[in-house]
Design a protein that fits this description.
With 98 residues, the chain is mostly helical. The chain contains 6 helices and no strands.
Length: 98
Amino acid sequence: MDDGTRIELEAAAFRALRDHLRARTDVQNIDLMNLAGFCRNCLSRWYQEAAADRDIAMSKEEARELFYGMPYSEWTTRYRTEASPEALAKFDPSELGR
């Protein structure tokens, strides 16, 4: 497989993950962090870092809006719920975005 095809496939897989997470608004970021060690905010930060590596200016809010499909403040108002005591007990902030 050539590099161009590999990059296209990786980009398609990323878009599929992004779209899946946009559709699964019932899955909270703390749940993702507890299960996988990353969340939507991590993905948007990695997007922003990839842009910066290519000298493309992108703010944290711009990256989040690209990933969430709407301003982050709107997403949290619409979809964020209170974390359960169990989720909070499992949460380890040292794992953020590793």
